[in-house]
Amino acid sequence: MPITTSKIDCITNNKDSSPCIIHCEDKDVALDDALNWVTHEANNLLASATDHGAVLLRDFPVKSAEDFDAIVSALNLPNFPYEKSLSNAVRVNRTPRVFSANEAPPEVQIFFHHEMAQTPLYPRWIFFSCEVAAEEGGATPICRSDLLFERLQADRPDFVQACEQRGLRYTNVMPSDNDAKSGMGRSWKSTLGVNGHSAAEKRLRDLDYTWEWLDGDCLRATTPALPAVAQLDDGRRVFFNQLIAAFRGWKDARNDPSKSIRHGDGSPLDVEAVKHAVTISEALAFDLLWKKGDVVILDNMVSMHARRTFTGTRKVLASLACVETNCFNANSPRN
Length: 335
Ligand code: FE2
Known about the structure:
Layout: E1 5-9, E2 20-24, H1 31-40, H2 42-52, E3 54-58, H3 65-73, E4 93-95, E5 98-100, E6 110-113, E7 125-132, E8 136-137, E9 140-144, H4 145-155, H5 157-166, E10 168-174, H6 188-192, H7 197-206, E11 210-214, E12 218-222, E13 230-231, E14 237-238, H8 243-249, E15 261-263, H9 271-284, E16 286-288, E17 295-299, E18 303-307, E19 310-311, E20 315-321
Helix pairs in contact: 4-5, 4-9
The structure holds fe (ii) ion.
C-alpha cells in the first residue's frame, strides 16, 4: 500500500483499556491513499478494536469533518444516524454521518457509558475525531467492559447476578425544546422524531416505554427492562449498560440521578456495589488525550467512553455504525 504505518502499541496483554495505536508515518500522504489503506485494512482495524476495545489512528491526513466522514465511510459499515437514535444528548450534524460528540458545556463531566445502551437501539461502532484539542483536560477516557465485568463478578457476584437476571430500567425527563446546557438535554420531540403528544405516545408505546407528562411540557419516560450484561461472539461477557452514567451523571434541572435507574423489576440497586463498579471503571480507565486529526474506532460492545471536563475550546466529532444493513430493523434492534 502507498502508506506506511507502525503498530506501536497493542501491548495491553488484555489487562487494561489501552487502545491499539497506529501511527501514519508518511507526513505528506494524500487522503485518497489513506482511504485506500483503511478500506484494505478494514477487517483488521475492526478486529483490533474488538480485541483491545479501541484503535487510535494518529497523524493520518484528517483535517475536516468531511475527511473524517470519508475515513469512516472507507470502513464500509452501515451508518447509524443520530437523528433516528434515542440518544439523550444534544448534537449537531456536520455531514450526513458526522456530528458533534456532545454539546454540553466544558464544566459538565460525562461519565462512563456504552453509547445508547439505555435504549433498545444502539450502535455497534462509534468513531471519534479531534477537530480542536482542548487547552487543558478534555480527555476521552476509555474503559473495557469485559475487564470491568470480570472484576465486578469477582468482587460483587450477587450484584452481577441481580443485573443479569433482572436487567435495568432507565428513567429520564426530556425537555420540550433542546437544552444545550445539559449533557442529556435533547428534547422529546427530537429524541422521538415527533412533533406532538399523540405521536410521541405512539412511539413510546411501540418501544414498550411508560411515560408521564410534566409541567413545562417535559416528558418523563421509563424504558422496559433492558439487559445489563451482553456476550460477545468470542465468549467474553461485558457489562453492557448505562449504569455508571445514569447513576453519576444524569443530573440537570429536570433529572435526579437517584431516580434514573432501577433493576428491571423496579427493585433498587445496591448502591455500594454501583459505587464499587465506578471505582473499578476509574482504575481501568485509559485517558485518551487528543491530538488534532486523531481518529478513534471504538467497539461499543467492548468499551465504555466518557468525557473529562476541560478549558478552552474542544471539538470532538463522532459517527456511529452498526453491523447489519438495516440498523433499525425491529427484529434485530440490538446491533
Ligand atoms: Fe457517548
